[in-house]
Amino acid sequence: MNSTILDIAKLAGVSTATVSRVLNNYPFVKEQTRNKVLEAIEALNYYPDLVARSMVKGRTYNIGLIVGTLGNPFFAETSEVIIKTAEMYKCHVTLCVSEENETKLSEYVDLLCNKRVDGLIIGSIFKGVTIPRLKSSNIPYVLYNRKNVFEDADYVIQDNFQAAYEAVNHLVRLGHRKIAILHGPQVFDSVAERLEGYYKALQDAKLKTYDHFHQEVHFEKVDADLESSMNRMMEDKNRPTAIFATADFLALAAIEYLMNKGYRIPEDVAIVGFDNLRLSGHSMIGLTTVGQRAEDMARLAVERLMQKIEQTVTGNSSEEDSWKIRLKPELIIRRSCGAHLKDMIFNP
């Protein structure tokens, strides 16, 4: 039979209230007392009854995380940060992968709500899709990476417009006049805002653009879409001298395609990505990219969710205490853009 808090208190010679404080990692417990309680816990092989704990505290200490696809390294990297940060709050994370599918996203929201998670973090929401269960369940949730025009939710995102503008403007300053864009589906607000930044940078530089310079890649069929998109872009006589990709994994795939076709990076085609994945900084790749501060984004999403959960449990929630955070972009200049080739001249 499992030991109880009373058993621990008797063995350690303290009150049950003191045992509870130690179990919940409360401050202001003397180190000597804390050690006595921990020794008693180990001696009795005590483990807490999580069901009882959730009934008493009104919490399950489990949060849900919904991401688009682990095939996009951005979601893999931010999921790792979210899980580790949640562990600091003694919370477990149930990870769901929507595969960028609207129906799956809604189904996972229903599933996690039915599992009575304390809250949700969603990184794969669509800009024009409502999720009724988010409203009706009153469950605390935070969006990261993307936001939604219908959900008046707390979010932590990148300033996507400004980031794309700075990336394209960097290519303009290097002398490029034919700049293409390789982007994901515009059903996501992050992609739509990056496209707007791209167009604005070209407009301000008074540069022309062409239909075959804008290529969309669907995330559910990246390999096939990317090859056909790059074919359309590069087989035209009017080829771009630079490509801005709205995600690093697209930029890396474009580099592989171009090198297989005999193009030199960056001498023939310069490449700029978006995310600053760990792989992008590899010395053999050297991808110029917009640093998305993914770790900050993921960490802040967890911190905000924990605040909202606490407010829900205590009944102290406030509409005035909302978070609408846009992180400032950072352009990380590496070899792929050609900035190190000072004497490069690109045909107008």
TrEMBL record:
User: What sequence ranges are listed for the domain HTH lacI-type?
Assistant: 3-57
Say if the entry is tagged with keyword Transcription: yes
> What InterPro entries does this protein map onto?
HTH_LacI, Lambda_DNA-bd_dom_sf, Peripla_BP/Lac1_sug-bd_dom, Peripla_BP_I
UniProt keyword list: DNA-binding, Repressor, Transcription, Transcription regulation
Entries under SMART domains matching the protein: HTH_LACI
Superkingdom, according to UniProt? Answer: Bacteria
Q: What is this protein called?
A: LacI family transcriptional regulator
Species of provenance: Ammoniphilus resinae
